[in-house]
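Sanity check

After download, print the first record. It should look like this:
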Amino acid sequence: MGKLVIGSFMFIAGLFFLATGVGAIIGIPMFAGGLMMGIAGLGSIGKTAVKTGMAAGQIVQNMQSSGAAPSPYAPPPYAPVKNGSGLDLRRWNTLVELDPEIAAAAEQVRAAGPGYEMQLAEKYLAVNDKQYLAAAVTKVLEQARLNEERRQHEEQIPDRGMIGGSEYQRKAGGFYLIVKGKDVGRTFVTYDDMRKALEG
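Expected structure tokens:
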């Protein structure tokens, strides 16, 4: 490739010198040298292409003789599929599929509601030891119970109300927004958090 570039440069420079008439002494050898070098460069590119083609042909021939045809459907190398918390979902799903104890534990917490299986997966994969599986299930189910109690408690709270001179409004996402009084625009995740902040 280098020969082709240099040869092209010399060829064009030689033509330029010949065109001026003054530099014919320099132009003729430069023109001829550039032409020869360009031809040599083209020849080397052709040789490289032939060698590459022959090597590829040899690889295909070896694969055919061994009975292994190249497959466009070959599986990719293993790469963990992770959720936002960095949890290896592929590993967890494989454990659930292959291990009856882990499958039963996943089913147990799944019944408590969406998201609890991922909590179990996070706890189990952190220690990767089955002796802690029952404890992890207990912890997740306890959290599910507390969340349900909080949900039921918050359902009894009016969607609008007053606390210490400030008016709040419960929004569709379940959070509380101060709409009048002190701290207008401030939001709270739970009613208790809001009550403590506004009464304190």
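If your output differs, re-run the checksum step. Summary of this record's structure: The radius of gyration is 38 Å.
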